[in-house]
Amino acid sequence: MVSSGTIPVREAELEYQLRGSGPAVIVLHGGPGIGYRYLEPELVVLSDLAQLLFYDQRASGMSTGVECTSLLNIHEFVADLEAVRAAHGAQRPIFLGHSFGGLLAMHYAIAYPDRVAALILVDPDPASRTLWSRHSESILARQSQEAAREIATIREIDDWNYSPALVERYFELALAPLFAKGQSPAGFGSRFTQVIPRNLTTTASALRTSLGNWELHPALHTIQCPCLLVVGEESIFPAEASDRLATGLPDCTVARVKHASHFPQLEAPREFQQAVRSFLSRPLM
After folding, report:
1. Cα(114)–Cα(131) distance, integer angstroms
2. Where do the domains of the chain lie?
């Protein structure tokens, strides 16, 4: 089964797509701003054992709301997620979050612990800004000077974000250091061209500013549901980040994926699928 539509939230409409049948899994993309389509090809194969709800977060992908910058904050994103859950009708869904989506999932689980059956965190943003900020070191170390110069040149072009060709090239270059091999797969940049242009340049910076100096480690013990932490062994985040999540979450299974960095679902699909399917086969409700 495949269906799509929009979910109204405060001052925005959130685009969604529903696939498959079975236990409800709400997919939370990274970014924010970029939308869910970069995740879809590798996750949609899970629709044989779960009902996947992909949605573009506020001012992300094809969702609206970018004009109301005062609402681009984590509290509103959590409220939106609760609205998505309620609209879906799932009392206690599973939440699968990648990158920033993992951080959003943790915020939601802390706020609504009784409405979460399980968390699947795929190379999530660390639970503190201090640890998250260290990923810039990894990116700088992996990025060539030539690529950095081309990225800067693209960003200097007026309305570059309105050009699909420039958007594709930008993400091909900018995300290359987030892969263990140091380069984006062929065509990966095209997954970001179907995005409202202003979402690409506004949402992430506004949301990160609103997050401030976040620190979730003291509250992780309140997330009592089963958690699966899937981390690439060559993650852009420091090992301390995943180690502290593994020890801070009371019921956490860790899958460390070899030869993978920030996109284990794409870099090592067999290992990723095995870990997620094994986790979903557990009694989680």
Report:
1. 28
2. 2-133+197-280
Q: What does the alpha-carbon distance between residue 35 and residue 107 come to, in Å, rounded to a whole number?
A: 19
Angle formed by the axes of helices 145-156 and 164-174, nearest 10°: 150
d(C-alpha 257, C-alpha 17), whole Å: 28
Element holding 12 (H helix, E strand): strand 12-19
SS3 283: coil
In this structure, how many other beta carbons lie within 10 angstroms of the beta carbon of residue 90?
Answer: 18
**If you count DSSP H runs as helices and E runs as strands, how many of each does the chain have, helices first?**
11, 8
Alpha-carbon span 120 to 94, nearest angstrom = 8
CA dist list (Å): 179 to 109, 126, 209, 251, 274: 28, 18, 26, 28, 20
CATH topology of domain 2-133+197-280: Rossmann fold (3.40.50)
pTM over 0.90: yes
Q: What residues form DSSP beta bridges with 4?
A: 17
pLDDT tens digits, residue range 156-176? 999 999 999 999 999 999 999
